[in-house]
Design a protein that fits this description.
heterodimer; A: 380 residues; alpha+beta; four-stranded mixed β-sheet; 13 helices; 31% helix; 18% strand; B: 79 residues; mainly alpha; two-stranded parallel ribbon; globular
Chain lengths: 380, 79
Amino acid sequence: MTALQPAVDDQSTPSDGPAATAADDAADGLLTATSEEAALEWLHANRCTDGLPVVIPTPERVERMVLASGLDGDLSLGEMGPGGGAATVAKVAANAVMAGATPDHLPVILAAVRAVLQPEFDLGEMQSTTHCTAPLVIVNGRARQWARVASGSGALGPGHRANASIGRALRLTMINVGMARPGESDMALLGHPGKFTYCLGEAEEASPWEPQHLDRGYAPDQSAVTVVGAEPPHSVIFSGDADDPDSAERLLATLGAVLANVGSNNAHFRCGAQTVVLNPEHAAVLAAAGLDRRQIRERLTELAVNPTERIASLNPTFAGRADRATEFRAVRDPDDLVILVAGGSGLYSAVMPSWAAGAHHNPIVHAEVVLDQACEVPLR
Amino acid sequence: MRDGIETAKRGLPTVALVTEEFWAQGDFVAGAAGMPDLPRQQLPHPVAGSGRQAMADLADRIADDLIGRLRGQPVGTAS
């Protein structure tokens, strides 16, 4: 017999599905199943997974994860929308177990949950929108080494356990505590693969600039997650030329064109945080031109523009909302841009447009990754 | 749906307009907000982009009933 610690909010435990084999043990609030395989089938049937197999959150596994946090399992980090479940440390830990996370990943996962629970992130609305947005988690500081978060080649692709598990733990928490269920409360018309996991570190060692979390007021010895609701990465090709004095400006213009992609919400709504992931080679082109991150943000804001008539010709419904401005700026303010360095060196950087909606228009949020509360838990 | 919840919280007469595609989500959101009985009017989907005449026809069909519900009168054929 296998026991499962519910990963869902206590007030919204799902009813048994057709393939359910687990039974609710009212005495201790645990579910029981005849085997791990049966428990997995129950979790799938009750829509507690992302569709992939999960690690069964047995009480022992969850307890070990909570112990690693150094926090009280009953501590609530806040209510998570749209369902309004209480995101306690234990619930987050249970979802982290399901995601395949290790105790070393937990401080980053908890920070990501704290970040998305900040009211200005509008998580409940973000989870409910028909847009495809997903929280992108960017890790900075010593937490990258602590949790072994990848920031180099293929950082957003498969093969990096921490990146995969941390982003997935956040997603499973959003499913089971926030109660975001496709077609019922998560109304994304299509979704995107980053809704399974969407996490990377900044390649601070390959960057010509200070780590990007310092822009948000953190000290160099602090670790932090920066979280942005984001579309999938849109690839940006650029080949630099050291003999071309305009190389940096050409790169910026190329990035600006993708930031102003006329199909994006940002281009139409003229707001919303957007993310620019520069590969180290492209970052070096800009640094060689003497540009710092602030100057890059300002220049990209100037360049990410569409003529009003262009938007009006494609989507008059939205252009009709505009004032008589002659241009639609896709970036409202330079501070709406997250610029980081990550990935391998080469031709390609990436831009992640965003939802640009909700009461707060899709802002950047962040939270410190607290490492000094975490306890080392030996492997079994 | 969320707009309806916000107006209802302010004590204003409310009927949320929800298209059939979003009806289940409306139930979920109303329940999560602690207002499972918040009055709702189901609309065909989609309404946006259906054209001026189609929207006018829809408004003609439901307006009297909506106004009645907002005034607290017995509900007619709308649900």
